[in-house]
Design brief:
Layout: H1 2-16, H2 18-22, E1 23-28, E2 37-42, H3 46-52, H4 56-70, E3 75-82, H5 90-100, E4 104-119, E5 122-138, E6 143-150, H6 151-154, H7 163-182
Parallel strand pairs: 2-3, 2-4
Antiparallel strand pairs: 1-6, 4-5, 5-6
Helix pairs in contact: 4-7
Length: 186
Amino acid sequence: MRRHTLLFLIITILLTSCAALGTKTLYKSKAKNEFKKLAFAKLDGNRIVSKVFPQTDSIFTNTFIETFRIYNLRDIVPIDGEFSINEPDLNSIVQICKENNLDGFVVSRLKFINVTYRMNFRPIARNWDTEVEMKLYDKLANLVLAVRHNTTKGNSYIVFPTADRTIHDGTAGAIKRLALELGLTN
């Protein structure tokens, strides 16, 4: 009886912690900010990822808006411009926030991860998983949060996922971490 209880507990912990393994908060500011209206830029390196999967930008944009709506953040403004995630133009972020009366600005990067699934050491399928990194800046271009979600480590799929599914899941996973860190509830 005790053995079954222990086994059940271990399996439960493993299954419920999958998303936590793939999602990380890389940086969190101590400043307390309230975000009601956000903007987001096109993916850093958008032209490159679009060569791998042409619908990447539209899936990212739709997922970004829809996932924040779950957390009752409905004022989301897509900005037609690409910002480097490592060295964003902070003056442009301040200007965009001022012009659009925004509380914050999100810069993102998506990387495709080429995964080969194996059975008995033989390749049986290849797929593209994703890693999505997001940085949230306040209206004065101060970094508030940096998060990352990796679908290889954080999502369990019964069948091999399509690229559009991993783009959606990677984006939603990063936004869910942002929402958690910001104290947003659904």
